[in-house]
Amino acid sequence: MVDATAKPAFVLRLLSRNRIVKWAPLLVLSALVLFFPLIEWLEDFRAGDAHAYLIDSRFFSVRNAARIGISATPALIVAIGATFIIIMGSIDLSMEGTVSVCAVVFASVFIGLGGTMLSWAWLALPLSMVAGAMIGFVNGLVHVKLKIPSFMASLAIGFVGTGLALLLTRGDRIRVEDPVFRALLTERWFNFPVMVYIALVFLLVAWFIQSRTRLGRNFYAVGGGEELAHASGLNVERIRLLGFTLAGTFFSVGALLAVGRIGIAETATGNNFMFVSITAVVVGGTALWGGIGGVWNTLAGVLIVNVINNGMVVVGLPDFLQDAVLGILVITAVVLSTDRKSISFVK
Amino acid sequence: MKLEALKHFLPWFTLLVLVTIIGIANPAFFDPAGLIGLVADIVPLFIMALGMTFVIYIGGIDLSVQQVANLVTVITTVYLANFGMGVAVICILVGFLFGAFSGFITTRLFVPSFVSTLAMGFVALSSARYLSGERALSMDTTLRNENFGWIFGNTAGIPHELAIAGVLLFLAWFLQTRTTFGRALKAVGSGELAAVASGLKVDRIKILAFGISGTLAAIAGLMFSVKLSGGDAHIANGFLLLSIVAVLVGGTPLTGGVGGVINTVVGTLIVLVIRVAMVYLEIDATQQQLVFGVVLIAAIALTIDRSKLRGVVK
Predict the structure, then answer these.
(1) Which domain holds residue B111?
(2) ipTM of the assembly?
């Protein structure tokens, strides 16, 4: 053990290192935001065109920021749901199924009740969230009561969800064309569509849950050491159940935003959410072994992934290369935001 | 026999229950020729799952297997004319290198395998898209039959695919149970810190485990491309989750150190039987995914040996 009081210099060094690690995701994000305009500048410089760095950038513009915001929003909310679970040291892979079911439930009820927000059809919104919470609750039950590791339990629940969505839609697409609902995308305040602000509200709610409620603190306690949490009188099973229910609710909000973005609900609505959201959570600096990180990290992680994706398109990187570059940059981001001195191994 | 010893057979028991259910519903299931055909069809998935077993056995995960297999289908198709059977060597080498590099990133750069293998999968995907020129390629039939036609032959009623699976299974089993490397794998899976303390070169062992996973994924990809007589960057999609499911449902939990390659045999058969059951029980196509998920939960609830999860289920 290190005697902290006897070695203040060492403590100081540790603190600053900790601080760097803590802010690493934000540093990576800033570096990326400055990097893509640099490429644009270099291209124009080579071609001999006039180009003021950042000012003339197509990437570094409000329009493009709105574009990144739109693409990042549903993934952000889904990733926030997953963050709570990962803080507990578990994992939730049910998002693809849950998102599909919630999207389909919302769309069919919405159409069934009149198809416009100005009628009773708005009830489809809370109903879809209840559906998400229920799937999350069942997920938690399977995990906690049947003692199935969350990886497996949530993967299977995800299959069930996708199956349920397929059963409800019979493979069809449901279009949601109500202008009031689509205002999520079409109505803009200060250049950003409404859905971005809604996502920010849910981000604040998540932050409140994480830092200002007992449940939020308990997630960290369970993630920091489950046996210890149990020994200190926490009802770990209940916390886990609540965590999965909460995650399911956030997945359903993500589903609603996804439908708002494309105007279509179908079995495939949930596709790709799983790997993108888990990657974003990890890139943001939330450790898969639990106890570290939080929703702000996830915001940084989601933005990193979306900035990379968007930036590659803007600078005109060939299509086939984009996957590889994303992969390499994700590894780099994780390497930079991992405190390698505090862990002895990863799995 | 004590109750403790019976736990080993939980996956077999699950398999037996499932088979009995289908058998009662439709005795035609037990037709031997049909059964052999069914099992032969699932060989590529089994090989992929066999490799995955090593990684899950040490407590990691390999999410790159499907993309490595995709890449290999493209490599095989493109270079079959140049190298003939030698293309298999290239494929296996590529698979091993991809796996080993994921292992390197995981152990030396401290990137969790969930992310490192996912990212390496993206690299494989890009390579496959580049090499195939974003098209679905097909093989020259004569060349295919000359070099790899033997894979689909029969000897005494046994399809050669099954024989290949058997040989690989034997090798994997031998590696896991009869070599120091196998014992080291178990040590790493059961407790990495203890393994380090007892002087094992843990990093090297883990990198090798990922390398094995990549190698077997490449062999699975080779079989795909020969079977489908072509290759493209998306041909094996859908097999990643199934191969993970096959390993887990066989009783090798993600915590590591428990289970093994024989469990994966059972796990793959369970996945096969659930899939086949839906055809035999005439379940509507729109309901199959739902039923698959529910039966999977039941199967895993029956299968996993909870006594070795050390109290905490994460």
Answers:
(1) 41-236
(2) 0.88
